[in-house]
Amino acid sequence: MLDLHILIEREGDLYSALCLELNVASQGRTIKEAERNIREAVSLYLEDVYKSDDQKDFIPRSAPVQEWLKYFRKEAEGLSAEIKKGRIKARLKEVVVG
Questions:
Q1: DSSP string of 19-73, one letter each residue
Q2: What pLDDT digit, counting tens, does each position of 6-41 carry?
Q3: CA gap 59, 24 in Å, rounded
Q4: What whole-number distance in Å separates Cα of residue 43 and Cα of residue 82?
Q5: Counting beta carbons within 10 angstroms of the beta carbon of residue 59, is it exposed (0 to 12), middle (13 to 18) or buried (19 or more)?
Q6: d(CA 38, CA 8)
Q7: Which residues of 25-49 are buried (b: 16+ CB within 10 A; e: fewer)?
Q8: Residue 98 burial (CB < 10 Å; 0-12/13-18/19+)?
Q9: Using CA atoms, how far apart are residues 29 and 16, in angstroms rounded to an integer?
Q10: Sign of CA dihedral 26, 18, 21, 64
């Protein structure tokens, strides 16, 4: 099971959606439509990669760092708001380097 991060941004009259791990993009007129479209785009991308046996070269295929920063900045804002309201339960996720 893959955990994939999706960044959705309003761009004019549309919402763009970007899968950060795979650098696959889509869009929609609403957030819900953008979510549906990115799910389909990711599914088709993964299906194509596995059919052609190109996993090594195309999973992961990360989006640019500035897109990841937008995602985590927004996530941190939401987390901060929840902490201030006292509605947070801690779950630790460790990454060991070195």
A1: ETTTTEEEEESSHHHHHHHHHHHHHHHHHHHHHTT-HHHHSS-PPPHHHHHHHHH
A2: 999 999 999 999 999 999 999 999 999 999 999 999
A3: 11
A4: 32
A5: middle
A6: 10
A7: bbbbeeeeebbebbeebbeebbeeb
A8: exposed
A9: 9
A10: positive
Query: Strand 6-11 relative to strand 14-19: parallel, antiparallel, unpaired?
Result: antiparallel
Least confident of 23-27, 41-45, 48-52: 48-52
Higher pLDDT, 54 or 67: 67
Which helix (H) or strand (E) segment is 8 a member of? strand 6-11
Query: Residue 70: pLDDT above 90?
Result: yes
Structure tokens at 69: 């920063």
